[in-house]
Please model this.
Amino acid sequence: MFLTDNHPGMPSIISIKSLSKTYSSGLDALKSVTLDIERGEIFALLGPNGAGKTTLINIICGLMNSSSGTVKVNGHDVIDHYRYTRSIIGLVPQELMTDSFETIRSTVNFSRGLFGKKSDPGYLKKILSDLDLWDKRNDQIMTLSGGMKRRLLVAKALSHEPSILFLDEPTAGVDINLRQDMWRIVRDLQSNGVTIILTTHYIKEAEEMADRIGVMNSGELVLVEDKRSLMRKLGKKYLTLQLHNRIDNIPAALAPFRLKKSKSGIELTYTYDTKGEQTGIYDLFSTLKQIGLKFRDLHTSQSSLEDIFVELVGNKQS
Model:
């Protein structure tokens, strides 16, 4: 039921070129952002508060004008062909803004009608059932819990059967059950050809869900990378050694390895670059043997997307 105009050889479904936004206050909310989003992908946009994520989304959705640059959706300029581009986009904002006296059924039907779509009871039942809202279809919005209101936002965004869906912090402040339901719905939408663009503070979710990651900071697009490539290229590995005996200080002979000692003094952690041909682990073990520092166990781990994000944003600010 969710369809896209996906044909071989067609351009990216969203193409952003040199997009900038400067407010009257002089704040540069976006600084020459260039980005292509491919059809059918899940693209996660990460960044701290004030990075420009919501501004970017609002411009793509036609809710705000840029200062310069262009945005095309399915090959159509969002200003010159606003009605068309908006008709294929669904937006789930952070806040619910609708008449609290309306029922779920009426507000979703109204949202569908705004885009010139005829009433479709079968489709309405499907999306409300998928979102566990069907049994509450005649309830007034004011009676809904916070989680149910968040589900309603998704239903309204899907009411006109868009081929692109924006999710702006879709699981902020919701319980784990709703969060899992939300990601199940996202996977179902993607399997039906819908392109998903999400912003989130839950970096673990982006790590699990996204095909590609974009990192924004201070209005700039710091990095865009395939998630697996990003983890491989920027990830670090950690080798943690559990010592036989507690130590108060790291021996001077180990200084070149920049080890970190746990507070208990019973563990040492060595960080090495996954890109490097020489990890330094052999030299580390040789030095440990030379100075007689014995360990009883070891394990390795890899940096998460959150570690990479913090490092990228930190480097950009420094």
Notes: The chain has two domains: 14-231, 236-302.
